[in-house]
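Hi V.,

You were right to ask for the full record rather than a summary. Here it is.
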Amino acid sequence: MDGDTLYSIGDLARRTGLTVKTIRFYSDRGIVAPTDRSLAGYRLYDIEAVARLDFVRTLRDLGLDLHTIRKVVDQELSLTEVAAAHAEALAVQISTLRLRRAVLTAVAKRGATPEETDLMHRLAKLSEDERRRLIDDFLDAVFGGLGADPHFAGVRRSMTPELPDNPESEQVQAWVELAELAQDPDFRASVRRTAENHAAERAEGDTAVLHRDPVAAVRNQVRPAFITGIEPASPQADPIVAALAVHYAHVVGRPDDVVLRRRLLALLETANDPRRQRYLELLAVINGWPGPENLSPVLDWSIQALRARIPG
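Predicted structure:
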C-alpha cells in the first residue's frame, strides 16, 4: 500500500489496535477526520490518520482530555506547553495521593478512631506555612524565654522538620505523627523541663565543659558498661557511676553529693522520655537524616545505677 491508499475504520482498527467504536468516536469529535467517503457512504482515511491515531492514543495514555488533544493535533496548542501544564497537574495529584496513602496506612497500622483519622487527615493537608506555624508554636513553647543563648538557637534548628516538596509516603506518615506529638501538652512540658534544666546548668556551670551535657556523658561513659553486661547495681558499676557524677559535678560547679546525684537522676529521667526518642526518629525520616542512636537502654541503665546508690 502506498501513501494514496485509503483505509476503512476496520482497516485503521487492525493497524492501530484501537477499537472501531473508539475510532468512530474520535472521528465524530473531529480529532481524526475522514479523508473521503466510499460510494456506500463509509468513512475512509489516509495513512496520516494512522500516525494521528497513534499520537492521540499516546496522549490519552498520558491522561490528557480529548478537548486538549484536539487542540494539540490541530496545532492550536503547543505540545510543550500542554505537557508542562499536565506534568504540574500530575504533581499535585501525586502529592494528594501520597497524603491519602499516608493517612490510610497510618490508620491501618494504628487502628485509629474516626476522630484520630480526621485529625491525621487535617494534619497531612496543612500547607507549608501552616506546618511551619505549628512547629514554631511547639518550639516557642519549649524554648521561649530561655534567653538568647546561641546554643538553644542551634538546638531549635536541629529539632525543626523540613518536609520536602515531593515527600515520600513514609515522610508524610512521619510528619503526621510528629505533628501530633508536637501538639501533646504533656510532651511539650517534658521537653520544656529538659530545656530548662539544661539552661540552668549552662547558667551555673564551667563554660569550658558546658557542651558536655549529662546525656552525652551517658553515651560516652556508660555505654561500654551496658554493652559488656555489667549490672547497674553491681560493685563493678561503682566507678562508672562515680565518674558520671564527677563529670556532672564539674559541669554544674557543685560537689558530688546526694543532692547532686538526685538532681542528675531527675535530669536523666526527664531525658529518658520515650516520646523524645520517637520525635528524633520521626525528624530523621522527614529530613532525610540518618536514624538517631537510641540511648534509652543506656539511660535506663544509668537511672537504675543511680537509684541503687542514692539513700532513701
